[in-house]
Write a structure and sequence with these properties.
The structure is a homotrimer.
Chain A lengths: L1 E4 L10 H11 L1 E6 L4 H4 L9 H12 L3 E5 L7 H6 L26 H18 L5 E5 L15 H15 L2 H8 L26 H29 L4 E3 L1 E3 L7 H4 L6 E5 L1 H7 L4 H6 L8 H12 L4 E6 L17 H11 L4 E4 L25 H16 L10 E4 L2 H9 L8 H13 L5 E4 L10 E4 L7 H9 L3 E4 L27 E8 L6 E5 L4 E12 L3 E4 L5 E6 L2 E4 L1 E3 L1 H14 L11 E6 L2 E6 L5 E2 L5 E5 L3 E2 L4 E6 L1
Parallel strand pairs in A: 1-2, 1-9, 2-3, 3-4, 4-5, 6-7, 7-8, 8-9, 10-11, 10-12, 12-13, 13-19
Antiparallel strand pairs in A: 14-16, 15-16, 15-17, 16-20, 17-18, 18-19, 21-22, 22-26, 23-25, 24-26
Chain lengths: 645, 645, 645
């Protein structure tokens, strides 16, 4: 199903009926509204204006459109900030981050929580049972614009409170953080300050806890809104629109108060933001990398109940990346179908029409400012027709390969990279890509989630292995490959006394006796009976009695296997990983095919989709199949869909 | 005529007479003094000391030197800042920018305006009618050291006041800025704050207006000083010394209170500051780029009455660029004659003698600290002798080619580059250079200025097309070429409802339906019947019924022409532009010649000058000419001047 | 002798006896303790706890270990900072630099001085006469984490006081600083503020004096502690552990209150921090550059009495560089012996055991967290056995070559680089390396130190030549080569009236008439009868009647010699320098040999050491020698030691 983000408050009210009619006509079924309209809902303190929103909802509903209503907390009006300046977040420099854009609040502010309760209550009470309102989006893109960490007095107080609950006594805090080092001990929780602005590096344990506290308080903030909505709006779903490649809070935790996850898919902008090599950025500049969207579909599908939406889908050039090209012809259609292939229920485009004003005036919509369809808008109409033809899609099945994503891994490797280019996103991407280049489907799972039924489990980097994770690893019969730095930290960000991989040593009998981060230009040869290549970025010296799968030049082990568990103590690239994964997939009897770098496959029930991100046609190498869309030659930026004949 | 900047307060008074004598002897006629001497004019609050300045002026006058007196407002003394700390400008971080260099004031400060009125009044009253004083320089290098934008309380108040006059009501402001977006609406002008320090990007409309306000208040500040001087100093000229490649305020507006413009020409420093590719920086490291000075001569000549001065001419190595080489032998002479060729009345060197103290101790003068002539000083003496020989130069005539420079274009493309390397200066430079490589003279004109009489008008980028500009475009018979992003904004920095190029559509029937900024490494082929090449940086998708002059690979138009107007929706490089310009110049019957990249020509009346910026000789390819200076072989870093025989 | 840094407070007390026993067993003789233990010595204001430290000392002493006790001022506890927040240093942005790491004090704080006196007094009084305590380390790594310059109110007051003593009157200050420039004159010392936060560049003379003031106040602070210790702890040595490549205060001055210098040798981290080209960083990534440690040995040996220690020697990977590889096998041993070859009395490793907590949890020790020896620990045990075999080493003799290091040169070239890449450390390194590649020993000496007995003296850059320096240059019969910018400044950072090289003109009759800094990519050919090459970075135009040793392309001089003094006015690279040095060494009859870039020699009395920093073996090219360690084929990362047979 298709949806769209719409801002009736942006447009002349006379246009609304025609907009609604056109939406319906091109195949739109869902409309998200309201999430930035606080200044229109409540133009002055306590003076509400619902008339316009009532009318907008009626007009949309009259066309049969289903409405997702957003809570407007991502953009408090100026009068509120002037009344309560303490709601503003505070930067690392100790200065308030001012009004003028969005997300100008810290959830640590008591006043802000009170304002949130008030506005969510009135919106939910007014529209919660409206028949056209089918669901809710809480806030907008939590954490966007680097707003997870805030350093003001209320944040500090919240942190101290969080610590006192976690550690109970300052003695315990001192011990777990190792505060005896550099005389950092405190005599009371009141002495603790956020780990920022110090003469040099602060304690990584403090930073990890500060991040956890901030992540937790965002999750609580989301739950606070969800509870109010559930009270007033029974039988409607609650979701939030997450951002891709965004690790600054724990999505698994925050999602606990949601019914399902949505995410905002901007494939081209990420080409600039993700740390790709420059040549790759040029290569994929107007298509995006073929694993960027797919990875996030696989992530958000798995978090809650195998349901997910694209709440905002890029329909054309945007405004916020370093460069903002138009998507290649066909890519808006391709991205949409790719989302469906990975299980999306709804793909909702951002936005109906390009607003010629303000910060996003250069961000395309399905319509141009002159109310004509944009190139992306024309592709969407085509998608809608194809959906009609295809009918309901079969349910998504569990994949045979799982990859573990851990938000704390992301925090830990940024708090203590140890080598400047140890980038968790890059590592995760390389492992995911290596598997996907073998034509297999992949589920993204949380640490501790059941791994039953998988054939191969990939754990690129999981520094903290808690009891639940360990139990899940022990319980599965899948082959598990653990990457570098897995098991390298205790829950309080210390090196395990028994050395890394810590608790994992009960599965693989190995100790990491020394660690080297490797600067650009340095690589170490690795050889093995089944695969060979080089280590870059990171290389661990392993102490083990196990036979080595891969060895360094001096003959010492870089990778070892015990029963169904392998530990790989080096950063290796995608081609090298692919050799290794292929070997295990073959052993586990998983069907696979080596794909060109621009082709990806994805199954949904009996359907197989093939997506071509490249500029050259690709011929489907399978026989005896029945095409539902496309044919055996998949053109550039095109896709095909078939069932086995 | 030659001039020099002199600081009697820097030197032992016993040296003054000898300095004055030597100036006269080597051919200096004008001396600029006084613009940094406030602490000597008024050592303590209200205690003035004019004796030393009286004597200095008498000594200079006694040698027949004409004096340009500077108002000392660019460097207020410490006692003043201590008394009135609110005069200090405030940075983006909200902190006052402190005493210790220069330009430490914001013109928004009421106290500063009062101090300015006081000191200018007393200086002007004392010296305004002195027979040796022939003119005034107001302040020094307005905007230098990034002082146009200031963010303190008085700046904010000034901005609010400016807005209330422009928009009359907060409703109108909200509408024109599109403040409904992200709930940015205000209920009163009092709610407005400068667009800085926000969580993320602020409204570009707010930023453009803040820049306009700051530019306007600088222009008012200049006019305030000018009015005081005119009262006390009749029949003296008033000028200001602008900086090259400096776009942070509107020079056209500020110049309205001046009699003519001066500018400070530092050709070598700009090689490092201008965004040239590294290879070009190496190429021109000790000569400067052959279009850098010429462009500014053509700009400042045109602003007021076809008169301009070089107030500060680089005479040797300076101290403030990333690297500071000595000019190649001959370049000080070449730069001087090039200024005259472009119409300069006076070339005044900075400075008489290198001061061995303080910030500019490594900045050369015509003399070294040991009172011996510097290498540059020796070249100046040669120039003076050549001036004697040449006598009066003929008046400068209007060129056949004009290029439109717009300060708001510079602000808009920095506020919203949309692609990180969309640099207005680079674009302007490429268009100017392309024309100049064809041997033609170019006038730099303001938007809205009459274009009558030109054969070719170049508009590299003019986002806002107001009524005056449009009228000027309509009124000329010249062929006009509009570059990318022209007409892409309304006066309030919105996308025109009818799409770009907005009002220009009445001249060229085309709509920009989609825009791509192109990252480094991406280029798109463009082909046409008369020229071919690639687009980089920027490519617009054009919707038009006009035949295409240039097309993208998919056959869509990149450039179209209607009657005498062409719209080029892509960023193309200099060689490609030159092909296009040559075609139109030929059609218009303008004489041209393709020049090597290091040679430039310039006419002044019947005289033609050829300047050789390269290391190899160049043979003049014209016959039947009579050399006034030089001969048909123009040596490296040399020039020649001839009349048609 | 070997030592180790130990933190009993980090470990379970039950481990102490075993730790002490193991130390003794592997050959450790000295243990440094206590320098970060303030929060354990004084857990709350005025409540001291010495029991644990008493016991630790007894346990170490019982194994015959000699103790170096550190004063704990590098890490004040939180309660102290909460009581006296004014002790915190203040950054360039005017904000206090907070608690959370170390070095969070400014020595300008009166309260801090009072707290320092108190804690040092009690520690020194308690342990000063303990028989096992043989020496003291004051504080830890002065200046680390950029803590030399602080900008708070007490720093400003201290600066004003320092200035009033130096200049006596504001008039004198104005004159010496050239404050008339830009009206920077002050009427009283009270008007002076630290040179920071101004609109643009502040007066370099003010910055130099501010740096001197800060350096002096650190030296005074060290002397304050030393005086207290001497009172309570007779016959014990006092040292401080300096950092390599750290120029932010004057080590010569600070060392005046010490008995000898120690330094902290982290060869690998410096590969990333020193401005080496990237290819060199890759080349030396796990060995370090062969001149990095050697230079510092030669420096710290010379400062006080030809004695020095390595207080902290890197034993494995560290945590604080951009990348942190493990040292190549053998390098920990090589570095240790290299230190001894250069005269170190004691090499003390940092640290006994890797603490799995806090900021340095990834920093290796001789033991791993699991109490097993690390790879570095195993090499140290080998070194200890070799020391036994070798017995006492002969005394170090004066070298035949000296190189002058000047801390003010470092400050001046950073305050006023004039070309962005004029890096004093790079220049010094190139000159030292060029000499060392010729197989000769080098002493690093302070300006003004006697140069008697040397054959060749290298002065890469000495901007200020004071009377003592000049006298030392005049008194020596060595050939002296002065590099660019030598003599280019007066003591108050002005250009000498007689032009550079100022006072040096009495030795070499030459004037620097013009200076060019040269951007990357620009090089100027230099030719001479004995050596040829190119100038990069910097080229001076020389005015002289002396014959030229090297000339630019235009025939002007780049290097001249008068009697035993040469002035070289250009930056030239190591290979070029080596040709020149070789020529003078040959003339002076100094034995030399051209070494590969990875081999270095060092004599200690009759012993010659050869160190191989490269991956290929090297065959000793001398005959008739008797190997003490190793043999004629020196393996990769190995060394040999011989006496002439």
């Amino acid at each position: 199903m298709l949806g769209v983000c719409y801002y009736p408050e942006h447009w002349n009210e006379e246009w609304w009926p025609e907009d609604a009619r056109q939406m319906r006509e091109i195949g739109i079924r869902y409309v998200r509204i309201g999430e930035f309209a606080w200044s229109r809902m409540e133009p002055e303190q306590g003076r509400y204006d619902w008339d316009w929103l009532d009318r907008a909802i009626e007009i949309l509903a009259a066309e049969g459109l289903k409405i997702v209503l957003g809570t407007p907390t991502a953009a408090a009006p100026k009068w509120l900030v002037d009344l309560y300046p303490d709601v503003l977040p505070v930067g690392e420099d100790g200065k308030a981050r001012l009004f003028g854009s969005r997300r100008h609040y810290t959830p640590a502010s008591e006043q802000w929580l009170s304002e949130t309760r008030r506005i969510v209550e009135v919106v939910a009470a007014r529209y919660g049972r409206h028949p056209a309102v089918v669901g809710w989006q809480i806030d907008n893109e939590f954490g966007g614009d680097d707003t997870v960490l805030s350093y003001g007095p209320e944040d500090a107080a919240g942190f101290r409170n969080w610590l006192s609950q976690r550690y109970q006594s300052p003695q315990r805090l001192n011990e777990d953080w190792g505060n005896v080092f550099w005389s950092m001990e405190v005599n009371s929780f009141d002495e603790v300050i956020p780990p920022v602005g110090a003469v040099s590096e602060t304690n990584p344990a403090a930073r990890l806890d500060f991040w956890r506290y901030a992540s937790d308080s965002l999750a609580e903030y989301c739950a606070l809104q969800a509870a109010i909505i559930r009270k007033h709006s029974p039988d409607r779903f609650i979701t939030h629109n997450f951002m891709g490649f965004f690790h600054n809070f724990d999505h698994f935790k925050l999602a606990e108060s949601l019914d399902f996850c949505s995410w905002d898919s901007y494939p081209l902008g990420k080409v600039e933001h993700f740390p790709l090599p420059e040549a790759e950025r040029v290569r994929w500049y107007n298509t995006s990398h073929p694993d960027f969207s797919a990875f996030h579909h696989d992530l958000y599908r798995g978090i809650r109940n195998d349901r997910f939406w694209i709440m905002e889908q890029q329909p054309g050039p945007v405004n916020w990346a370093h460069w903002n090209p138009a998507p290649a012809n066909g890519m808006v259609r391709l991205w949409t179908w790719e989302a469906f292939a990975h299980g999306a229920e709804v793909v909702s485009y951002f936005r109906w029409r390009q607003l010629p004003y303000a910060q996003e005036q250069m961000h395309a919509g399905l319509q141009r400012p002159d109310r004509q369809p944009s190139p992306g808008g024309l592709e969407v109409a085509q998608v809608a027709r194809e959906i009609e033809v295809m009918g309901d899609l079969p349910p998504v099945e569990r994949a045979e390969v799982a990859i573990v994503l851990d938000y704390e891994a992301s925090w830990i490797t940024r708090i203590q990279p140890q080598g400047d280019d140890f980038n968790y996103k890059l590592l995760l991407h390389a492992w995911y890509e290596a598997a996907r280049r073998l034509g297999v489907d992949v589920d993204v799972v949380a640490p501790g989630q059941s791994l039953a039924g998988y054939k191969l489990v990939l754990v690129p980097c999981l520094p903290i292995i808690d009891d639940r994770s360990l139990a899940a690893f022990k319980a599965t019969t899948a082959h598990i490959i653990f990457g570098p730095r897995t098991g390298s930290k205790t829950t309080s960000h210390a090196v395990p006394w028994e050395l890394p991989p810590g608790a994992l040593q009960s599965l693989v009998s190995v100790k990491v006796s020394e660690v080297s981060s490797l600067r650009p230009g340095v690589s170490l040869s690795l050889t093995g009976s089944k695969a060979s290549g080089v280590a870059t970025h990171w290389a661990e010296r392993l102490e083990t009695d196990l036979p080595a799968d891969l060895t360094y030049e001096d003959g010492s082990a870089a990778m070892v296997t015990q029963r169904n568990c392998s530990y790989l103590g080096a950063w290796i690239d995608g081609d090298f990983l692919r050799q290794i994964f292929a070997d295990y997939l073959k052993a586990e009897g998983v069907a696979m095919i080596e794909l060109p770098d621009h082709i990806r496959l994805r199954k949904r029930g009996a359907l197989t989709f093939a997506f071509n991100y490249g500029p050259m046609p690709w011929t489907v190498p399978f026989g005896g199949i029945l095409f539902q869309i496309g044919n055996e030659v998949v053109g550039p930026h095109d896709f095909a869909c078939w069932v086995d004949g």
